[in-house]
Amino acid sequence: MNGVLWAVQAALALVFFLGATVRASRYELAKRQMAWVGAVPRPLLLFISVAEISGALGLILPGATHRAVELTSAAAASLALVQVIAFFFHRARHEPRNASANVALVALAIFVAVARPVVAPF
Prior knowledge:
Elements: H1 2-25, H2 27-33, H3 42-65, H4 70-92, H5 96-118
């Protein structure tokens, strides 16, 4: 189970880190690739991006360093909350593909948040 959790954590970290990095550093490119980016004020988009980058790091670094390992569950739960908010945003914009992706990310993040401390602590 520990291997499965690490795989899910790595996949989530990659998705959140790469997406947030593009949105934060290459705004014009992100606006062309993701229609919703232009609908969000840039300061809010930067805040969301920093939160997602922090969450991605929180999924990996505590376990890798064996320090403050409880932060992994907190990071996963926080990312799940961000995705719940994103789900309602995309539903309101009639973007079912994005909303479906949000549901999948919520499920994976909740899995990590619950399973990591109970089933396979570091």
